[in-house]
TrEMBL record:
Pathway: Cofactor biosynthesis; Fe-Mo cofactor biosynthesis
InterPro entries: Aldolase_TIM, Elp3/MiaA/NifB-like_rSAM, MoaA_NifB_PqqE_Fe-S-bd_CS, rSAM, rSAM_sf
Role played: Involved in the biosynthesis of the iron-molybdenum cofactor (FeMo-co or M-cluster) found in the dinitrogenase enzyme of the nitrogenase complex in nitrogen-fixing microorganisms. NifB catalyzes the crucial step of radical SAM-dependent carbide insertion that occurs concomitant with the insertion of a 9th sulfur and the rearrangement/coupling of two [4Fe-4S] clusters into a [8Fe-9S-C] cluster, the precursor to the M-cluster.
Cited CDD domains: Radical_SAM
Xref: SUPFAM superfamilies: Radical SAM enzymes
Highest taxon listed in the record's lineage: Bacteria
SMART domains, per the entry: Elp3 (SM00729)
Protein's UniProt name: FeMo cofactor biosynthesis protein NifB
Family classification: Belongs to the radical SAM superfamily. NifB family.
Record keywords, A-Z: 4Fe-4S, Iron, Iron-sulfur, Lyase, Metal-binding, Nitrogen fixation, S-adenosyl-L-methionine
GO terms classed as biological process: molybdopterin cofactor biosynthetic process
Length: 278
């Protein structure tokens, strides 16, 4: 039985708060669109005012709960990959000890997911968001320029193959272990835009529960690409909906976002009502 979560349940999106605790600066891959920044004012993933330690995350959480009692979700969402940072696990252990009633959730690129699932289970994390942008390594190699795996750095097709294999294993195992799994796919014009329906099929077959197709924010090596038009995103979501449930309300939040997401200004491109109650 799933608890209400503002990023998985459309009604909860406007009623329940979440806090992203920015304890995870390191990442183990390199996505072409990634530009992380500490101290920037932009409103997008990879941005935080500061990176904090687990002890400070706990005091920030305490303060946030006083200011916004509707916060029910404690999450780690960067600014790097939460699973590549020990501080993520230390933070969840503290949250579990001091705020056992909160729901715990994290986002990841999935490289380390299968390895970390038993620990996440033990820590009481039950919602996972995995960003997966290709199920074909030949497309993946155009998106991921570097993959750090077991102490080695891989580039090109080899890196993309390793990442995909670990992502699929992680999603498959997570769904079978009882985690709620959302897949984020960044819609990258001309790179994976004709591939998203295939991703949806593979994600359904792997056991993911819902898919969140997000428009590319053109940055990094993709800074020359166009921002997808809202109707392109709507069209691909409509194509994927018969395959796997779709999430329509993502705000592409900062790594230190806090509050009720449905009440925050964001870069929401769609205001469609979600047809499925989760
Ligand atoms: Fe950046 Fe996230 Fe990609 Fe890592 S997984 S490179 S933090 S976008
Ligand atoms: Fe929710 Fe999207 Fe913000 Fe994550 S990034 S908290 S899914 S609205």
């Amino acid at each position: 039985m799933w608890l209400a979560h503002p990023c998985y349940d459309p009604e909860a999106h406007f009623q329940i708060g979440r806090i992203h605790l920015p304890v995870a600066p390191t990442c183990n891959i390199r996505c072409g669109y990634c530009v992380r920044s500490v101290g920037a004012l932009e409103n997008r993933p990879g941005i935080t005012q500061e990176v904090i330690r687990p002890s400070k995350a706990l005091s920030r959480l305490k303060q946030a709960l006083t200011l916004e009692p509707r916060i029910q979700i404690a999450a780690v969402a960067g600014p790097g990959d939460p699973l590549a940072n020990e501080a993520t696990f230390e933070t969840f252990a503290l949250v579990k000890e001091y705020f056992p009633g909160l729901t715990k959730c994290l986002s990841t690129n999935g490289l380390l997911l299968a390895d970390k699932l038993p620990l996440l289970k033990e820590l009481g994390v039950n919602y996972l968001t995995v960003t997966l942008n290709a199920v074909n390594p030949e497309i993946g190699e155009r998106i991921y320029t570097r993959v750090m795996w077991k102490g080695h750095v891989y580039h090109g097709l080899e890196g993309a193959r390793i990442l995909l294999e670990r992502q699929m294993e992680g999603i498959y195992q997570a769904s079978r272990m009882g985690f709620f799994v959302k897949v984020n796919t960044v819609f990258i014009p001309g790179i994976n835009s004709d591939h998203v329906v295939e991703i949806a099929r593979e994600m359904r077959d792997a056991g993911a529960h819902i898919m969140n197709i997000m428009p590319l924010i053109p940055l990094g090596i993709f800074s020359g690409l166009p921002s997808p038009a809202p109707n392109e995103i709507s069209r691909v979501r409509a194509q994927c909906l018969p395959i796997i449930n779709q999430w329509y309300l993502c705000k592409q939040c900062r790594a230190d976002a806090a509050g009720v997401p449905g009440e925050e200004p964001g870069r929401e491109v769609q205001q469609e009502a979600c047809p499925y109650p989760y």
